[in-house]
Amino acid sequence: MVNGSVTPEEEKSVKALGFLRNKGTNNFSGRIITVNGKISADQMICLSEAAKLHGNGVVMMTTRLTIECQGIPFDKIEDFRAYIAKAGLTTGGTGSKVRPVVSCKGTTCQYGLIDTFELSEEIHERFYNGYRSVKLPHKFKIAVGGCPNNCVKPDLNDVGIIGQLIPNFDEDSCSGCKKCAVEKFCPVGAAKMKDDLLEIDEEKCNNCGRCIGVCNFDAIADGTLGYKIYIGGRWGKSTAVGRPLSKIFTDKEEALAAIERAILLFREQGKTGERFASTISRLGFEYVEKELLDGDILERKNDILEANLHTVGGATC
Q1: Which of 29, 136, 174, 269 is 20–30 Å from 68 (CA)?
Q2: pTM exceeds 0.85
């Protein structure tokens, strides 16, 4: 510090640790990493104590489901980090890297089709922790949604995953009911009776699973679990709605491989300072989709990770 003021170099050094300067002060907000927004009650107690001891006592949630404690003086940052480490907590989540993963509460929600907690924890470990030292052209955000209700806005993230339940329609079991329960329950009007037979418009159907088991004659007794992946979403001053890949993944490992291809492609072919949405726009969606679905980029993984790329990324927070 110079004359009691934090220097730009000092501010930059702690930003990399997840501490962002509070406007007009020498104090900082410490960003604590959560896995899909969950922490234990004991960890919350520890954070509250740390906020009172080393900050201004305020604990707040960010839009990415991380937690920030405000008003931490520069010379108390290491004390704060040491205190929360007792509860297994750490700070971070800044820079031109894969950011902490966000998920909805699909694991416990009545509409949830997939175990969003389990999947987001796996993505967090594999891509947030596993790629922690990997510099990208800009920040890279991933969100996991449990169903097409899109509560966590997966299509506004660089990569978004939405749980699917694809109806398995047994046409032979359809009795042509005059008042079709499936048609009644379909929230998007994809299921319609036509010539005494149920038809499902695959263009309209969003695989929400609401039709599963409602037919009195078991025409749709079950469904196939899947993952729909959107790429190129972004919110902020310039918003972009992500586009879905043409394939609905029914194998989790295939879906995770597509996410890893996206990160590697962004590192290899993205320009420093641009978001993934801009990379996709520049390269063309069709080209990027082909690379993510069946490209050979995973075979070049080590070379891409070892290349001297994006030493100064584009993220400012």
Answers
A1: 136
A2: yes
Q: Is there a shared CATH topology between the 8-85 domain and the 169-221 domain?
A: yes
Range 169-221: architecture per CATH: 2-Layer Sandwich (3.30)
Tokens of 246: 């043409």
Q: What is the mean pLDDT of each run of 10 residues along the chain (317 residues)?
A: 83 94 95 92 97 97 89 97 98 94 96 97 97 96 97 96 97 93 95 94 96 96 98 93 98 98 98 97 98 97 96 83
- Under a CB-based contact definition with an 8 Å cutoff, are residues 175 and 124 in contact? no
Beta bridge partners of 138: none
**Under CATH, what is the fold of the domain 8-85?**
Alpha-Beta Plaits (3.30.70)
Side by side, the strands of the sheet bearing 27-32 are: 19-21, 27-32, 67-73, 59-61
Residue 88, classified by CB atoms within 10 Å of its CB into exposed (0-12), middle (13-18) or buried (19+), is exposed
Q: Give the span between the Cα atoms of 15 and 7, in whole angstroms.
A: 12
230 and 159 Cβ atoms separated by less than 8 Å:
yes
